Amino acid sequence: MENYVIEMINITKEFPGIIANDDITLQLKKGEIHSLLGENGAGKSTLMSVLFGLYIPEKGIIKKNDEIVKISNPNDANALGIGMVHQHFKLVEVFSVLDNIILGVEPNKFGFLTKNEAREKVIALSEKYGLKVNVDAKIEDISVGMQQRVEILKMLYRENEILIFDEPTAVLTPQEIDELMNIMRNLTKEGKSILFISHKLNEIMAVSNRVTVLRKGKCIGTVNVKDTTIEELSRMMVGRDIDFVLKKEKVNQGKSVLSVKNLTVASNLHKNNAVRDVSFEVNCGEIICIAGIEGNGQSELVYAITGIEKIVSGSLTLNEVEITSESIRERSKLGMSHIPEDRHKYGLILDYSLENNLILQRYWEPKFQNHGFINHETIREYSDELIKQYDIRSGQGSATIVRSMSGGNQQKAIIAREIEKNPNLIVAVQPTRGLDIGAIEYIHKQLLNERNSGRAVLLISLELDEVMNLSDRILVMYEGEIVAELDPSKATIQELGLYMSGAKRQVRDRKGQDAKS
Q1: What average pLDDT does the segment 219-228 reach?
Q2: How far, in Å, CA of 471 to CA of 85, rounded?
Q3: What is the pTM of this model?
């Protein structure tokens, strides 16, 4: 008989209008990496939230080492040695790294906080597992990758034996993903057991021992990674064959839609400018991708183009209209759509309904209002149509509060809203972050359709496969500058990596054209 460190047996969890987990059984062996795979809204995060005590199931039991346990809250989970890194990190931004790690289990002597011992323990753990962090830095001042290290150290500091990783690679660079995979392998060598939620089939194949597949709240099955293929897993996940190769037809490029000239943007983190003297054009009928390791000025470049941040110098032109000093609304009205990298901060109003989020930048149009009064019936019809067209899964349809939706379905809502504005330019930042393979295929086809219809697409992505497959041209950013312009049909991922790391660069003229290598 197999011994399991954790068993979730016949778990059922319901929310208004939806059964998120329908009679699911999941068994975790000691020392294994067990992946949980499924579409957006399949019930993966809900199931892990039940194990961590954030939700109480309507039916089912949980066993640890063959004994039934009761987990009513995260404190119960921690007491049982269960820790969780959430998809959206649970960190206090104004606290230091050290304070976040010890929060809730602060060491004290006679009621007085004693941090020295905790500091030594955290530093020792960070060195042991290759999770180097500055323990005195504030969370708001460190990268997303570093914040994830803090979340992992929180679990290790509490000496958790069962570690849940919910979409841990969704916000990481390729280099950080490789580091995380090695860390996970090292953790299991020490006897820790890992539950790993991911949409990325190549990661699951690279790091997992077994995979359990969920679809629409039901368990489809559990398989050994060594006995399966990416194609078989994708069929289990979405119920159909996935087209992994994009068919990109040749399109005649038209006039310039976006012109960026000598753009310089300040940094919020340090004294140097984040973007330095950047120039390029985006034309009708093409997808230009800005590639680079996270933190090399891509975010600030997008903030300047979309109007979120002011620029230091340079100019921006959209459809031959200068927009350098224009508001976000004016840029939107002039034909710019923006799929932001941080969907919670810049993409959605989480406590609004789905239908109200879908008309955020259009509610003033005659179609949706009459003499200043919102036409709720028209908005509902429009929202229902987008939900159907983009397969946005929500428990109560258009009336669903967006905060209650899965991350992937929140992302689909943003993409639906921005594409349906019928823009001339789409600024898409990590558009498939957190999406399942079926949704990624759909979004890639949507972006290609926009390009084939003569629209301009500026894509910012950390996914090298996405960069190579979607782009007509690749611009590489390093330390705030465009260091190369590459043709994806001729360049290799290895060559791209050299430019991204700063090991190689092209000389470009003042107009942003490639002069020589």
Answers
A1: 94
A2: 33
A3: 0.70
